[in-house]
Structure to design on (731 residues):
């Protein structure tokens, strides 16, 4: 039942969108808009059941509330899912119909590419609504910005763990050489780190070996690599009961979403003295980057990257809070995000002449 | 049935779940079809026993509103808002203001107002949050009670039925049995009597029936006896579902034409009436006066204009009767055919580009897309 889920997770609104002509079935979930319009990508996936799609949309929307709050953005949390096979079911009309539904919310939800969708699809969405970001020709591919944010956050972790923020001679094991993993490898290489990499696609790993002198290992061997930093940049839930005992690192800091299989795995890492950079904080560079499109005057690359660089400070604040309060870094991240949302809710009590309602 | 299956079956576009724990609000907004324009439909408040019932009601009622608007000649689509709560216990300023904010999230795609369980006063506070409301009290800019308009629409509809059956719309000497002496029923009675009809009335509350009958010296019958009353027109103006397997064999009329919603218990009862050679005026067509009135608020309410638009219910019913005759279908099927025809016609108009209709820009080869402006 939908209302039970909204109640359990604190969502505001969920919109079921159906278009007979194209067969579009999409769900737009809006979690919390205290900070502003809900910003979050559009995922396309062949969900086995409607229930799976609802749960995924709600869960991802909630994650965006925390991410956007942690990034200091004035955007709330939302996400959309299109039920369908991204390899088979895409069409111009499907994404234009989706764009019309996004438009029906009048800017309360802003969409972007996500798993299963790309900038080309969003270009069709943009034919029907202004409320889409990350198009080619504006901020474009967010991966380099995400990688840069991870790099900055990792630097803060090095300072916390070693009292020395330099990458010179540090060993970083990167899982996943997709868009973000590749750019991260480049940044780390340029900063003097030694790289051990893996990917299920051996060619992609080999490219990084050639370009940046990385050592390549088999996908499953990455957990056993003796290193300073383990950087998960592929799948979620890779920090679990099986992998954590194998880790031989001081820091986990990477771009993958939902790295902890369960919240208790954050405690398990802390117990083993492994510093964990909360995923939604360290991988927030992408959303900071696309959000820059909403600055008056439009996207500016230098400003966007300067903002992404502040992930260093955000991670540092979280690590400090965790240390001082004796909580996990994941808990500290959640608390800081919730505190910000609460504080801004209080700000809204002040009437601002000329600003309606907020 | 899953939500998407139900939407696909009814052809609905959008179903919005709205939740605000601080205000105690659980509501569903259903948008059925917006070919003609924004979805217009009332806001119902009811203590449903399950979420499934909430969803079903919202989907069913919004679909009905598409058809109603299409044949009322107004340029609005079909929508409905349903608040899951007890109107006797759960109402508050915060609840209706929260609802107003949710209505506003659709930026005018849904325009709502009073329906079962809500009243014009409930929406006064909601107006602070959104302009997309109709039917507020007159002091707050609404057009006020619409029962006079609805009664007028039913009156002209009855005339159209008489013309179809007898070739003469004159009410003098015609016998009309009116079920229900509420706001609309009582006003219909007055119009019928003034036009020279012989009216018999009933109500579940006998005092109400007597109060309406006394000034004109009308005959009052028991609530259940109304079905057996020999008459030209039976006018249901109270409950829904009154045309059913039990009542149809008892009817001694040539026409069923009244203000009640959902008069047929099931669609097949339209055919059962036809089999008995009883002409049925589809309820959502003949009782559209109230909708015509609140829709007119969106153009700046004008009572004379509303009455003129409501008078068009007569010609609309005559067109439906003609389609039913020509195609040998029931009047209910004919009305549905007319709905489809109006929607298709409006959709076809959109294929003609007018200056100012906006450009859809962007696309894989064009970096600058910014939607339709």
């Amino acid at each position: 039942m939908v209302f039970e889920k909204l109640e359990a997770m604190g969502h505001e609104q969920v919109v079921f969108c159906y278009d007979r002509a194209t067969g579009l079935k999409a769900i737009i979930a809006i979690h919390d808009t205290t900070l502003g319009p809900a910003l979050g990508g559009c995922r396309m996936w062949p969900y086995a059941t409607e229930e799976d799609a609802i749960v995924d949309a709600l869960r991802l929307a909630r994650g965006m509330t925390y991410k956007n709050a942690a990034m200091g953005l004035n955007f709330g949390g939302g996400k959309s899912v299109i039920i369908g096979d991204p390899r088979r079911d895409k069409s111009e009309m499907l994404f234009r119909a989706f764009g019309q539904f996004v438009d029906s919310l009048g800017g309360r939800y802003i969409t972007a590419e996500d798993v299963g969708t790309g900038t080309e699809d969003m270009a069709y969405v943009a034919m029907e609504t202004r409320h889409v970001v990350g198009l080619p020709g504006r901020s474009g591919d967010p991966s380099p910005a995400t990688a840069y944010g991870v790099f900055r956050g990792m630097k803060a972790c090095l300072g916390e763990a070693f009292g020395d923020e330099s990458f010179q001679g540090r060993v970083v094991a990167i899982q996943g050489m997709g868009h973000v993993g590749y750019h991260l490898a480049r940044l780390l290489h340029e900063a003097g780190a030694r790289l051990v990499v893996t990917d299920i696609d051996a060619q992609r790993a080999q490219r990084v070996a050639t370009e940046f002198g990385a050592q390549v290992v088999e996908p499953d061997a990455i957990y056993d690599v003796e290193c300073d930093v383990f950087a998960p940049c592929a799948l979620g839930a890779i920090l679990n009961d099986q992998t954590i005992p194998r880790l031989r690192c001081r820091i986990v800091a990477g771009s993958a979403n939902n790295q902890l299989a369960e919240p208790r795995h954050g405690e398990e890492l802390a117990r083993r003295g492994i510093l964990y950079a909360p995923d939604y904080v360290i991988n927030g560079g992408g959303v900071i980057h696309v959000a820059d499109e909403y600055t008056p005057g439009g996207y500016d690359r230098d400003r966007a990257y300067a903002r992404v660089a502040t992930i260093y400070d955000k991670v540092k604040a979280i690590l400090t809070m965790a240390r001082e309060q004796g909580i996990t870094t994941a808990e500290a991240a959640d608390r800081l995000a919730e505190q910000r949302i609460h504080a801004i809710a209080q700000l809204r009590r002040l009437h601002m002449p000329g600003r309606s309602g907020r | 049935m899953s939500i998407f299956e139900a939407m696909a079956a009814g052809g609905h576009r959008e179903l919005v779940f709205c939740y605000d724990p601080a205000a105690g609000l659980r509501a569903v907004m259903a948008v059925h079809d917006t070919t003609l324009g924004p979805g217009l439909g009332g806001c119902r408040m009811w203590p449903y026993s399950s979420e499934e019932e909430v969803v079903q009601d919202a989907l069913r009622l919004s679909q009905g509103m598409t058809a109603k608007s299409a044949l009322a000649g107004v340029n609005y689509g079909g929508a409905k808002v349903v608040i899951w709560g007890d109107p006797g216990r759960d109402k508050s300023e915060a609840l209706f203001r929260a609802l107003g904010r949710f209505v506003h999230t659709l930026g005018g795609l849904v325009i709502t107002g009073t329906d079962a369980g809500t009243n014009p006063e409930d929406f006064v506070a909601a107006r602070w949050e959104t302009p997309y409301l109709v039917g507020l009290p007159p002091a707050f800019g609404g057009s006020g009670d619409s029962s006079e308009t609805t009664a007028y629409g039913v009156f002209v509809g009855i005339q159209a039925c008489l013309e179809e059956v007898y070739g003469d719309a004159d009410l003098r000497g015609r016998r009309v049995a009116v079920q229900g002496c509420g706001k609309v029923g009582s006003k219909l009675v007055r119009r019928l009597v003034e036009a020279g009809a012989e009216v018999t009335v009933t109500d579940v509350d006998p005092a109400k029936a007597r109060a309406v009958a006394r000034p004109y010296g009308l005959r009052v019958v028991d609530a259940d006896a109304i079905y057996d009353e020999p008459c030209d027109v039976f006018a249901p103006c109270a409950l829904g579902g009154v045309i059913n397997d039990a009542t149809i064999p008892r009817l001694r009329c040539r026409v069923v034409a009244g203000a009640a919603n959902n008069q047929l218990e099931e669609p097949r009862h339209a055919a059962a009436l036809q089999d008995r050679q009883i002409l049925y005026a589809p309820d959502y067509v003949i009782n559209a006066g109230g909708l015509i009135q609140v829709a007119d608020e969106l153009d700046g309410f004008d009572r004379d204009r509303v009455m003129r638009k409501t008078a068009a219910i007569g010609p609309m019913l005559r067109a439906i009767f003609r389609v039913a005759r020509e195609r040998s279908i029931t009047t209910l099927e004919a009305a549905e055919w007319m709905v489809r025809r109006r929607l298709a016609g409006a959709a076809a108009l959109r294929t003609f580009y007018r200056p100012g209709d906006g450009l859809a820009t962007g696309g894989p080869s064009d970096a600058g897309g910014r939607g339709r402006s």
About this structure: Chain A has 13 helices and twelve strands. The mean pLDDT of chain A is 95.
